[in-house]
Amino acid sequence: MARVCFLLKVRQDRIAEYRERHETVWPEMLRALSESGWHNYSLFLRDDGLLVGYLETEDFAAVQAAMAATEVNARWQAEMADFFEALDGARPDEAMKPLTEVFHLV
């Protein structure tokens, strides 16, 4: 199982709403993530908008592609895109670039 960590930046003026949106993630979105192979998925948000995502999966590219093929993900990404800085025209899920792991204590 691979561990994947990524960073995004939430707009300062949208942080409170971003937190609220994640208190009630759509059940069909949660189901799609689980069925697509996203495991132990967490988001951490710093007060300045730095968002750290973490998940475990067998194949990150494959689970991204599986989610991209779902209708619920298209709706979610469209609704969430305006929350982020510096996407350069990409959807939020397309801007999740894994960080390189340099240390792991088992």
UniProtKB/TrEMBL annotation:
Domain of life: Bacteria
UniProt cross-references to InterPro entries, sorted A to Z: Dimeric_a/b-barrel (IPR011008), Rham/fucose_mutarotase (IPR008000)
Pfam families per record: rhaM
Transmembrane portions of the chain: none
Protein name (database record): L-rhamnose mutarotase
